[in-house]
Amino acid sequence: MLRKRLEQLSVAELQRLANREGVRLPEDAEKDELVDILLDFYEERREERELFTNHPMRIEQRKYEISLDEEIDYGEEEFPFPREYNRTGIYLLLRDPSWAFCYWEIPQTFLVRLKKEEFGGLFLRVHRGTMDGEGFLSEESFVIPVQLQDRSWYINIPVQGAAYRVDLITMEKDREVLLCRSNVVHVPVPQVKPKRPGEVSLNSDILISISALHNREELFFPDGGVDSTSSSSYYGG
Question: What InterPro entries does the database record attribute to this sequence (predicted)?
Fold first, then answer.
């Protein structure tokens, strides 16, 4: 397995791997020779580890070992993750009952074509609806304008307890063109954590007592209402 993975690397990649591990290589070494040298190096390192590890520790270690090649650090430069996959798609993720995160990709070739044509704008159409046996049924929607350079957007969820889907749409020659459609997410209704047995809940009387306002004869509230028991007044401070 390890030999197969090493043989898939180029000569330059094998040389960088050897340099990272501190392995000396002969000049003008062929690819097969580089693979053999690296195989010997990793095998020797494995034997050294087993030599300086007692028997119980070796048994425990082997429980978590899968293969020799997992300990090789190939580095990020040999296997970078692409920033784009050159395909049109949009995806919807629920962050919490109030917010969802939407991200999308449009290939550069398609963006260039959009700019050349009668491009009238790009927007997200957020659908709220329900799920039944036939799929998603949209009940209402709202629009979020976005720019061509945008790749993601946080969406405020107006109503909980419903299903949501997002369409990525462009305007071309005064008509809507659907580019892609997201997955459907269900937004649950937020619930207050029920009180545990024996848990004390602070009612208004207790809050007034611990706030040192219990000796005041009259309380004023933000809405202008007054809880009055006498003609005296209290404005705070």
Answer: DUF4912 (IPR032585)
Final residue before a domain boundary, out of 187, 215, 232: 187
Rounded Cα distance, 130 and 157, in Å: 15
Count of H-run helices and E-run strands, the chain:
6, 10
Q: Which residues contact 104 (CB under 8 A, 6 or more apart)?
A: 88, 89, 90, 91, 151, 152, 168, 180
Q: Is 51 left (phi over 0), alpha (psi -120 to 50) or beta?
A: alpha
pLDDT band at residue 82 using 50, 70 and 90 as cut-offs:
low
Tell me the pTM. Answer: 0.49
Phi-psi region at 174: left, alpha or beta (left = phi > 0; alpha = psi -120 to 50): left
- Token duo for residue 121: 């704008």
CATH of the domain at 137: 2.60.40.10
19, containing H or E segment: helix 11-21
Give residue-wise pLDDT tens across range 167-222. 999 888 778 889 999 999 999 988 766 667 766 565 656 555 655 555 544 444 44
43 with 94, same domain? Answer: no
Q: Is residue 232 part of a domain?
A: no
Determine the pLDDT at residue 113: 72
